[in-house]
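Batch manifest, entry 17 of 40.
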Amino acid sequence: MTKRDPCARIEPPDGPEAPIRRPVTLPDPTRLLPVAALACLLAARSLQGVPSGLLFGTGLLLLAAWPGARLASMRRRGTMAPGRENRALLVAVTVPAALAVLVAAVAIRAPGERSGSHVVEDIGFDPVLGHGPLPVPGTDPSTTVGERRHVPDPSRDPALLLGDSVLFGWGLPDEQTAARFLDGRLPGLQVLNASVSGYSPEQYLLYLDEILRRPGMRPRIVVLGLYAGNDYHSCGTSNWRGHSKPVYEVRDGGIAPWRSVTPAWNCVDLMGGSLLMKPFWRWKEGAEAFVNAACGNRVLREPEHEQVVRGLLRAIRDRAEKSGTRLLVLLLPDRNDLDDRATEYRRTLSRHDLLARILREEGLDAVAFADTLREPGRDLDELFLPGDAAHYAPTGQRLLADVLEREIRRRLEGEPR
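Output type: structure tokens
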């Protein structure tokens, strides 16, 4: 037997150059959870209806699960820094709880009216118009028009008044509105108030089209009440005070709806009417901007905005002419448009002069109610509701009826029925 030299070097079993083996460490997949959550939330902004809701819910669940999953992963891997486990546990509990409170605040409907807005009764969701008059129980909604739900009389030709809350006569009973004052003054005509609070030019077009498609509905004249205070602004966004609404955009040399219908489950209505947003409606512009950003709404910029307004007014005229109906545009001013001292409003917010120019350049038959309101001896305090720069008092509604009677007679006298 060969004796081994005790001083000889003992080689390792794998040879002198064998590297030291370390366990393979895979990347921590929990680091991807917030990225996946953010991707789901961003994707939800660009979709509508059920797919948007599913992605939104998935994003929130991933975000809520992330702190707990991260804590469990660090414990399993033994990578938790000394003394930080309690802090990580607190985050793992707090984040899901905060998200649960947030979801509840969005899901719970806020009671009462929104600050800075007026109460709109009997108005509900409409997939095409955004919102519209709710049907009266026991009646066919196609047999009435407008928020006042006027019923056409088949023995008389209709004269249709179409506008927003100004021509609707907000704050007044039906018998004190221009439509009721005017009804009976025009022989053979029934004046129907088809106005709906909160509508703007794209909804005027869509609602007029819906009315004119009804059997037997052929108005002799349609009076379009174009309110200079917010009609221009409102048709540039898909969000009206937290209510989803249609909006048009420039496309292929013309205008087209941004989307054809609004799903019943949509971010704007969900956020706008939530308990979370209720205190913020005191600052209407800021609240609308937040909902726009959160929901990925379509907001028009100039010059596209003006191009869309022009296209909508032309489309309304063309739709009326297609049915053999004359269109008269009634430009309704804000009270500040009549006050030379309201220089800041006229410089930044007023669109009265711009709308007047658009109507003139597009060749639409139009009457400016401001010309009558500026006549010497007019007391604006008697014509407008107290503290309200948009809506008329009964005296103002009667004056509006006088102007409409004169202008409608001028246009219809001598025309065959």
